[in-house]
Amino acid sequence: MAVAVVVVVVIRVVVLVVTVVVVVVVVVVVFLAVKSSSKSNSKSSDSSSSSSSKSSSVVVVVVVVVVVVVVVAVVVTVVVTVVVAVVVAVVSAKKTLKNSPT
């Protein structure tokens, strides 16, 4: 039973760390992309409208990626918790059946 709790905690921590790392990497990459595109667009003055559409599409991509990562993290956490709970229930039921006099 204690092992199951440790497994759930470790998996939750790993999922949380991976989620945070992915979100930070996506935000940094998007920030650098927007920064580099604004530098290249400042050189050519006629592409200001394409610059705003590029940055808005980049923001949409970032939001979608972050939402997907968070949803996947929540789903993985819930699935792992349910699977470990079922395994613990089955193991404890087997122990109870073995210990009960027949």
TrEMBL record:
For the region Disordered, what residue ranges are annotated?
Answer: 36-57
Is Transmembrane a UniProt keyword of this protein?
Answer: yes
Q: Which UniProt keywords apply?
A: Membrane, Transmembrane, Transmembrane helix
Q: Where, by residue number, does the polypeptide cross the bilayer?
A: 6-34, 58-91
Official protein name in the record: ABC transmembrane type-1 domain-containing protein
Protein source organism = Elysia marginata
